[in-house]
Known about the structure:
By secondary structure, the chain is α/β, with parallel strands linked by helices. 50% of the residues lie in helices and 19% in strands. The chain has an eight-stranded mixed beta barrel with strand order 1-2-4-5-6-7-8-9, surrounded by four helices. The longest helix has 39 residues, at 2-40.
Amino acid sequence: xxxxxxxxxxxxxxxxxxxxVADLEEQxxxxxxxxxRDRGKPQAEPEHDPDSMPEPVIPLExxxxxxxxxxxxxxxxxxxxxxxxxxxxxxxxPRLVMEDGGFADRPDFMPxxxxxxxxxxxxxxxxxxxxxxxxxxxxxxxxxxxxVPISRATLGSxxxxxxxxxxxxxxxxxxxxxLFAVEQSEYRALNGKERSSLAAIGKMxxxxxxxxxxxxxxxxxxxxxxxFKTVRVDATRFLRQPEIFTDFHPADIAAYGRRFGIExxxxxxxxxxxxxxxxxxxxxxxx
Length: 287
């Protein structure tokens, strides 16, 4: 009787596993079919011009005042490995504390034209905050990786770059925990002086991350030489229109990047189905 009871339990378990696997296979087939249909449809080219993006809702003068009043704070958002979803690193995200106690996100206040001095100030504060967090985590025995935003506003200012290099030089023990994230539109627009500044930061041992990419057609060897370790791509647009980003098959581009020591990071995940497709395409990092 005991053996028969155990066999009955095992039979139910096997049945449940079989049904679960069948459901996953059906989801995978449906997802692949949807992607094939999407590829066959005429799609509008995504907007590549950063100047076409809406202006921030918070005026520059109010931003300057808020920064002067120390109403700038930094939160962290995790980047995880797939499929385990273990923390790989954290984005350092600047936010403004509003008068009602709420928070304004980066797109709401970061100026797109002008205001280089206040942007450089925000990024300098971000470096200082990252150093503090990295040192605390290292002291606690749980070192973490932090992605810190940087732009031409900093790279084009000799004084701002000098301050960043000084902060890194004074904290050499934790520079390996920092990655500076520069948007692709900013990277493309770098002049000779700004590229030299980026190279100088890379020589300090800080890795780099290419963010907000609209195309994966670039010189991977060049990025590797500058110290880039990750490249970020919007998950929804990449899954719907991979041909806009790359000439490679979606399942091959991540492996190609790894040949140069560069990992793809999928951002803006909206559902579990996207995670499944990204993992099938070999992308192992997601925000």
